């Protein structure tokens, strides 16, 4: 199955799951219309962003038919499709460097070749765990795409412009659930507090300035500059929910350098098995 097939018909996607950029098909945006192929460093940065979206999409897709209510089956499925669209855009751009397709990059890379942050690799756990992870990821992505619109690379800027509208919805969805769980029963509050404590060690990795950022300059967004906006948004939600920021040590996460923990290997084994067993198959 290709990423295009997994995403479903773009023409019927509406607000969610559409990977067109400025009303152009992605293939037209990146080939034959003046957009330059990615350099090695730009391709690496595109993998950062594309892998985050791809892995988080795969995680959320596992909730379809398992969410606590039918409405959440639909909501999480739509968010997963949005993220798959973001992943397709970034991976397509990354592949323009060396000729690999978005499917090659999604299904035929080994674990050390992925550049996803550890927070998106954390298992779904219970519903509160997924919401805590989604709250962090969507709040970060909103700050990231808002800043990436000013990239000097026009492809990054165009993808960010479109993706921001969708991530704004993702963030609102996660915020509403944090508030609902924190203000619900004693059990729901206990679970969201525990879940936030479990995911918080992986927050710092999102804001580390790796050497790649120095080389890219104004093409990329310096992660450390996003932290104030992220913290302000989190503080507002925590104040409304009467929660406190978890006091936990940062993990040694090194996903941007290809160093991953066990969960990613299990996820990739499931995600890639069909493409590796039947190379080139489609239906």
Automatic annotation (TrEMBL):
GO terms for cellular component: cytosol. It holds the Pfam family PaaA_PaaC. InterPro entries: Aromatic_CoA_ox/epox, Ferritin-like, Ferritin-like_SF, PaaA_PaaC, PaaC. GO terms for biological process: phenylacetate catabolic process. It comes from the Bacteria. This is 1,2-phenylacetyl-CoA epoxidase, subunit C. It comes from Microbacterium foliorum.
